[in-house]
Design a protein that fits this description.
With 460 residues, this protein is mostly helical. The protein contains 19 helices and 2 strands. It starts with 11 loop residues before the first strand and ends in a 15-residue tail after the last helix.
Length: 460
């Protein structure tokens, strides 16, 4: 009997599921490869001295950021997908191990080379080259914490980070005085804590982007935690881990992936009814990035209805304990510095960038300047909060979890659009929300091989 229906051995994928996975992998390759390595910082180091474990890679690219060297592995991933597709008609069913292995290889070929080249070039020049100011500052904050200094309220104007902004390693007094990022650490305590541990590694692996890379690859792993057909989970994991947004964030140095992976894991654990573990995962996500807070009301409302009052309270205690364990030490250390750096700086001090609402208002002449006032808090209260409350009210009695993921996606997209600062990397959050919603819906509506009983029609 041919395996093109759900009635297959649970160790194999039906033809339909194999084509779904291969089509998704092919799409990821086709969309991502032309964008790999695009728009890097135009650094101008005096010299490049290839050194360290990635010296051969640096020499092979003549000490430059070579997009062809990054896109070639991506095309190889496409060749592997094409070869795998050619084998599908030759087999009654596709082995599950082959599906998992192929997906992991494709994601790694797309994600790893760019981070390796960036880290190799950085080690072969100076620490302020071939990095991003955000991850560079996170590394510095981790080192400060290990040395017993508070990274919040710290002056970074003579840390080496000030040399990043000229792109050639030079520095002026004007940069030290006017670059506001040198006087604020805008990231939540989880980044400091993880960096304090990660930067203990030897160079170049102490580069925080390797931690971000592992979290990016973990997007594939956490997708497998969801219930439902394996092909859907692998396809969803590939979209989370290897979208152009996720790939660029890893090498460029945008540290959303650790928090994002834990947020997706929280949805998966709630779907598995592991409410306490889900609360811990979401607490860790909030410690790493404040965006994860948007998922809290949607998961909490659904979990409260499904788990019952006692289990819901226990989950709330776990979440609060995880967040408090990371935040309270810094809040006690210097509450004013923590607030000024993480809340006040991002909401009112940082210059307006991007093409969200703030950028549109600036271009329309409704805002005076990029460093002037922006009514983020009124917009939050009058637009974002009512829309989020309406989404919660509308889906408060939903019997399935996927509407909560849809609500999270809509609320997150609206939040990043209204924010003072809009980076394209922020869109990885609503993208992940869409994938999570699809995985949750598939787990409810698409029959898996294990759920089919021979002799009975598949569930619909």
């Amino acid at each position: 009997m041919r395996a093109d229906t759900a009635d297959t051995d649970e160790r194999a994928l039906a033809h339909r599921d194999a084509w779904l996975l291969l089509g998704t992998l092919g799409l990821v390759v086709l969309v991502s490869v032309p964008l790999l390595g695009a728009e890097p910082w135009p650094f101008r180091p005096d010299r490049v001295d290839p050194t360290g474990p990635f010296a051969a890679f640096v020499r092979a690219t003549d000490g430059e950021w070579d997009t062809e060297a990054l896109r070639a592995p991506g095309l190889l991933a496409g060749v592997l997908v094409a070869l795998a597709a050619a084998t599908v008609p030759l087999r009654a069913a596709w082995p599950r191990w082959a599906a998992v292995a192929l997906t992991a290889i494709v994601v790694c070929l797309l994600a790893v080379p760019a981070v390796v080249l960036q880290a190799g070039l950085r080690q072969s020049t100076e620490p302020w080259f071939h990095t991003n100011d955000s991850t560079f500052q996170i590394e510095l904050a981790g080192e400060l914490l290990r040395n017993g200094e508070n990274p919040y309220g710290h002056d970074y104007s003579r840390s080496g980070m000030e040399r990043f902004y000229s792109l050639d390693g030079s520095v002026t007094d004007e940069t030290r005085e006017e670059q506001v990022a040198l006087r604020h650490f805008a990231y939540f305590p989880g980044t400091v804590l993880t960096a304090a541990v990660w930067t203990l590694l030897p160079e170049p692996f102490s580069d925080y982007r390797f931690f971000v890379l592992l979290a990016t690859l973990a997007g594939l792993a956490v997708a497998l935690v969801f219930p439902g057909p394996l092909a859907w989970r692998l396809a969803g994991g590939a979209l989370i881990a290897a979208s152009p947004l996720a790939l660029r964030a890893a090498w460029f140095g945008t540290a959303d992936a650790p928090s994002l992976a834990l947020t997706v894991l929280a949805f998966a654990l709630v779907a598995r009814r592991r409410f306490l573990w889900a609360a811990a995962a979401l607490g860790g996500a909030v410690l790493l990035k404040q965006f994860a807070l948007v998922a809290l009301p949607f998961l909490a409302l659904w979990a409260w209805r499904q788990a019952g009052r006692r289990e819901g309270l226990r989950a709330g205690v776990v979440f609060a304990a995880v967040v408090a364990a990371g935040v309270l030490p810094f809040a006690v250390w210097d509450p004013g510095a923590l607030w000024a750096d993480t809340i006040e700086y991002g909401g009112s001090t940082y210059r307006i960038v991007g093409y969200g609402l703030s950028g549109l208002l600036l271009e329309a002449g409704l805002l005076e300047s990029r460093t002037g006032g922006y009514p983020f808090l009124p917009l939050l209260a009058l637009v974002w909060l009512p829309v989020t409350a309406w989404l919660l009210w509308t889906w408060r009695r939903a019997e399935e979890l996927w509407p909560a993921a849809v609500g999270f996606t809509v609320s997150m997209f609206l939040l990043v659009f209204l924010a003072r600062v809009f980076h394209g990397s922020y869109l990885v959050w609503p993208l992940a929300g869409i994938v999570v919603a699809a995985l949750l819906a598939a787990s409810q509506r698409v029959p898996s091989a294990r759920s089919h009983v021979p002799g009975m029609p598949p569930r619909t």
